[in-house]
Amino acid sequence: MIREDVARRVTSSATFLDWLPVAAVPPILIVDAAVSQGGKPITVVSVLAAVVGCLPLVVWRRVPFLVIFPLVTAGIVLVLWQLHPPNTVVIIPMIALFELALSGDRRRSLVMGVATVPCVFISVLPFQGSESLASLVVRNLALCLLAIAAGDIVRSRKLSAQRALDALEQETLRRVGEERLRIAREIHDLVAHAMTAINVQAGVAAHLLERDPGQAYDALRNIKHTSGSALSDLRSTLDVLRDPSQAAPLGPPVRLDDIPELTDGLRAAGVAVDLDVNAGADVPAAVQGAGYRIVQEALTNVARHASGASSTHVSVRRVPGAVTIEVVNDGAVALVPANGAGGGNGIRGMRERATALGGSLEAAPIDTGGWMVRATLPVGAGAPNGSQVHA
């Protein structure tokens, strides 16, 4: 099985760079043998030996590490036997060791450094006199170890660059995911609130069309105003998807002072809304926007899910280091378990807005009947930077 795997790798197609050493190194070896004092005569056999001795550099990617080492050593012995180029024969192991270190790991580099020592002795000992053996071994060994170190350094730098690139890609994907989630929350809040208000007002208009046409027309005008405002906000939000350079919707930022505009739909449905909004003017824009959207979604849920609700109390107050929001209605609602852990996209979106600012949100039934949404949004020094959280 191992033999078949090695044969398959060897016979697989080689690239131009694989064959480049076979084309470039033999002429260097031949010239060195021709001009050096210890070189042998240049013959057809010696030229073929130079080419064959470089062939392991072609197949090093296709054979196991433990096989390429003996092949390279055999090639060096063949070149020394037929040509004996004293100065340049070390090029063959240097290329092989550099490539093996480049494609391996630190452990392989250490193993190669240890294995290179006996291989250098085996290659040089039969062809060199005792008077210059030590200097030649030290020189060739140093060059081989230098090639291993160079390959390992290049590999380490490539690996570090790849890790940095992967980290950058992960960070980009994370930011894209956060932006998609933000846009999804924005669209959900806009569409859900507008459609609920339109549905309630359309029901009022249909009910009063014959009995009180004037009030029915008022409901229709409210539908026109609500739908037009929602479409404008939706276009601004979708512009972010069309133009990646935009970081936020183009429309004006919503504020806590705008909360009274959210009550029209409930009041049109006959639900009394008691407002107590007093958060002050120094609340950060991110907290203003998140608070507005939380109240918007809470009122939308009252209109959609609070069966028999007759009144809703909305309280937005500034307390030391935070803004507290409380929306309580007296209708029968069954959205999430008592612990507030479940719920649909609306409650999950409210909770995400609160936690993104370092706050908290609770949504649960109350003992006296009805439903309560309570949120705390930090505004002190420990709160996240408002520029990082979009409403």
Q: Roughly what is the average pLDDT, rounded to an integer?
A: 76
Helix content: 55-70%
The secondary-structure class comes to: alpha+beta
Regions with pLDDT < 50 over 5+ consecutive residues? 1-12, 335-343, 381-391
Q: Measure the end-to-end span.
A: 63 Å
| Arrangement of strands in the largest sheet | 1-2-3-5-4
Report the sheet with the most strands, covering strand number, pairing sense and barrel closure.
Answer: 5 strands, mixed
Describe this structure in words.
By secondary structure, this protein is of the alpha+beta class. The chain has helices at about 1-10, 15-35, 45-55, 55-60, 65-80, 90-105, 105-125, 130-210, 215-240, 265-270, 285-305, 345-355, and strands at about 270-280, 310-320, 320-330, 360-365, 370-380. A five-stranded mixed sheet has the order 1-2-3-5-4, covered by helices on one side. A hairpin with a 5-residue loop joins β4 and β5 (about 370-380). α2 (about 15-35) crosses α3, α5 (about 65-80) runs antiparallel to α6 (about 90-105) and α11 (about 285-305) packs antiparallel against α12. It starts with a helix and ends in a 13-residue tail after the last strand.
